[in-house]
Design goal:
Distance between the termini: 19 Å
Largest sheet: 9 strands, mixed
Number of helices: 9
Order of helices and strands: EEEEEEEHHEHEEEHHEEHHEHEH
Bound molecules: ligand ZZB
CATH superfamily: Valyl/Leucyl/Isoleucyl-tRNA synthetase, editing domain
Oligomer: single chain
Number of strands: 15
Radius of gyration: 18 Å
Length: about 280
């Protein structure tokens, strides 16, 4: 599985948990399969109970992600632990990567941090909680595109509508209030048309909770399928282009500008998850 890791740069106010790397180039690195939707990023999600680390990369920058993903990246040669040469899988799996922040970073400690998301129309977006994140997929960090990802839409909607939920995580209203859903691509089928397909399907299927797994899966399947086959870009450099073509163009632009890196999900680690 090839994911694109988007580099979301941590900016002031600096989170306390990252104090030891203050002033350095620190990024949260969500894994995405939908680089063409990055114009619509409204926030970033982490798992509150998830365990993350801050891992130094070969260029001196620091990636905040799961240890599992850091090992996978090391396997691909993203760290300089082995004189810049190929990093053997065995060495990576023996724990060559080391977090440059002492102790573990809980997702909870990252909530409310501000990050700069490449291509997003918003200057800075905030780190918010998502309880359905799997720590054994991607990096454990997810970038949120509520226009086209149903899981992202409902979780943001809940945080906007429920002050008690924000209180539970110590989040101010500012972290969600002004972040309206951004239309990124139009899907037009014979039955329906929408510029914010995830929002459209969440409402149509009457999804009211992020725990509504069955309906969310249905909404996700529909938006994924039609987004790729029928979607046309509405914004950015490739406005007017089909999603199926824009996807690789935006991916390549993000890689070329240094705003993203590739992450190949290692087979071995996926297999070991199921025993
Ligand atoms: C931006 C985006 C925009 C995404 C969209 C989806 C959609 P898959 O197919 O199940 O592998 N994701 C990444 N890592 C995780 C994780 N650890 N736990 C939960 N969700 C995760 O799904 C890959 C997508 O799931 C990724 O692409 C990411 O969200 C999220 F408009 O990034 B995506 C209809 C989906 N639309």
């Amino acid at each position: 599985q090839e994911y694109v890791l988007i580099k979301l740069r941590v900016v002031e106010p600096w989170p306390e948990v990252l104090e030891s790397v203050r002033g350095r180039e620190v990024y949260l690195v969500p894994a995405t399969l939908r680089p063409e939707t990055m114009y619509g990023q409204t926030n970033c999600y982490v798992l509150p109970e998830g365990e993350y680390g801050a891992f130094e990369q070969a260029d001196g920058s620091v990636f905040v992600c799961s240890k599992r993903a850091a090992l996978g990246l090391a396997h691909q040669g993203s760290t300089n632990q082995h004189d810049g040469g190929f990093v053997p899988y065995a060495a990576a799996s023996m724990g060559v990567v080391k977090s440059v922040v002492p102790g573990t970073i809980k997702g909870r400690d990252l909530l409310g941090a501000a990050v700069r998301a490449p291509l997003s129309i918003y200057d800075a977006v905030y780190v918010l909680p998502l309880t359905t994140i799997s720590m054994s997929k991607g990096t454990g960090v997810v970038t949120s595109v509520p226009s086209d990802a149903p899981d992202d839409w409902i979780a943001l909607h809940e945080l906007k509508e429920q002050p008690e939920l924000r209180d539970k995580y110590g989040l101010s209203e500012d972290t969600v209030a002004k972040f309206d859903v951004v239309p990124v691509l139009r899907i037009e089928t014979e039955e329906w048309v929408s510029d914010v397909s995830a929002a459209y399907w969440c409402e149509k299927l009457e999804i009211t909770s992020s725990k509504d797994a069955d309906k969310l899966k249905k909404a996700k399947d529909i938006t994924y399928l039609h987004g790729f086959s029928k979607g046309v870009m509405l914004v950015g450099k490739y406005a007017g282009t089909k999603v199926s073509e824009a996807k690789v163009l935006v991916r390549n632009d993000l890689l070329a500008s240094g705003d993203a890196v590739l992450y190949l999900e290692p087979e071995e680690l996926v297999v070991s998850r199921s025993g």
